[in-house]
Write a structure and sequence with these properties.
Number of domains: 1
Strand order of the largest sheet: 1-4-5-8-6
Number of strands: 9
CATH superfamily: Inorganic pyrophosphatase
Shape: globular
Strand content: 35-45%
Structural class: alpha+beta
CATH class: Alpha Beta
Helix content: 10-25%
Length: 158
């Protein structure tokens, strides 16, 4: 199963960008704390809805340079299961991980567990600290396999 992911925020960027449908362009949503940046490209999975009402979030591991608005056909390799409080209600808002179908560098990666435990701990820490900077708290953080992540995405696409 392939998914189309639209990049909103390129890797190594300290600014978080989001698409503004009213203006038909990307806008700066926030600036990360000094010294913090997105470790990989970050965006949304087309035709999905997460627990927070937005399209499902995805982090893409790729060797090419991207920018806001780039659409990538990717395979889902796992997810970080997340609960967060939005408007006083605890909602599920998983972060999916993906690799472009055309990737050569990451073609061997089929599951998030193909990365080292240290790498995955740092990804988890990124999401915790990224949200902590906005006084948001993530709970129930646990990695989900590629197969389970794809099943969850199929449900969110309905």
């Amino acid at each position: 199963m392939s998914s189309t992911i639209i990049i909103e925020t390129p890797r190594h960027t300290a600014g978080k960008y989001v698409f503004d449908p009213d203006d038909h362009c990307y806008r700066l949503k926030k600036i990360l704390p000094l010294g913090m940046h997105f470790p990989y490209d970050f965006g949304m999975i087309e035709n999905t809805h997460a627990g927070d009402g937005d399209p499902a979030d995805a982090m893409v591991f790729t060797e090419c340079i991207t920018y806001p608005g780039v659409r990538l056909i990717c395979r889902i390799i796992g997810a970080l299961q997340v609960k967060q409080v939005k408007k006083g209600v605890s909602v599920r808002n998983d972060r999916y991980f993906a690799v472009p179908e055309d990737s050569v560098v990451f073609e061997h990666v089929k599951d998030i567990k193909d990365f080292s435990a240290q790498h995955n701990q740092q990804l988890r820490d990124f999401f915790i600290n990224y949200n902590k900077a906005e006084n948001k708290r993530l709970t129930n953080l646990k990695y989900v396999s590629a197969g389970n992540a794809r099943k969850n995405l199929e449900k969110s696409a309905q």
